[in-house]
Amino acid sequence: MANRYLPESYVEHIHRLALGVEPIDACRLQLVGPAIRIQVEDVPRPFVVPKRRADRCVYDIGLPALDRHPSNRHALLYSASMKVPVTIRLFDCVRWYVPRRLQIPILTAAQVLTSERAATMPAAQPILLPPQPPIEARMRRPVLYPGAAYQTDSGATALRARVFRQGQPLRWARVEGRDPASNLLLGRAHSDDRGEFLLIIGSVATPGSVATLADPVPVEVSVFGPNAAPAPDPGRATDPLWDVPLEVASFPGDPDPVSSGEVLPTGYVPSPSSTRVVNLPAGRITSAVAPFVFA
User: Which of 52, 79, 173, 190 is the Cys-Cys partner for 98 at CB 3.0 to 4.6 Å?
Assistant: First the structure.
């Protein structure tokens, strides 16, 4: 096959980006640090979990990882064995962030080649090909929410609490905090495998400023969870993230409220018993509250 970019006297091998991932901190709206790991779940099942070592991350079962660049961006290249869509999991080993799982539609290698060729055609030559999404469509920016060990900024107003269901921690719940008077969204949070969450007021962009709110700050806290508890999967019994909800991202090039955390996972519903108003002292992290009960 003829070279595309170099003279034929050279051996040319082209690596093309299939998926780029820039994980974003939900509170700071910045790239997260190097602690985040992103792995691909599309492997033959049953997957044999490597023998556990004392120093191995509790969430890491040895799945193939995306390449991490020094910029803390992660890349997945096209390969002959790639499955479409791509299913990834994001986690860290020190509980700074709550893990997520995303199923991401990607462009096929043929679509990318078509787009490249169309972009290099002479202007006078008609392009009789369907329009392709821009290269930017290969990038995803999933938002990660604070975990139990998250390092908050000085003076943050936040609630640290737990959620239970039938006496057991409600894993991977979603939490919203709103102004009881205006219903203005003040923050979002995810619970971890222990049912613990850290709701930081101001963790979403809002027209108002937390500094202008009263002290204490009244917050209506609502917890969302799966309508039915997920049934244990014997094939994934050794996977600590087996029941993290799989969220399906939008088609490449479309707005992606799933990756940004604005959309609840499929099957998640509110519970009247787990919604109540909590008064939070401004500028402090409050944990002296009764657990939330999801029924």
Answer: 190
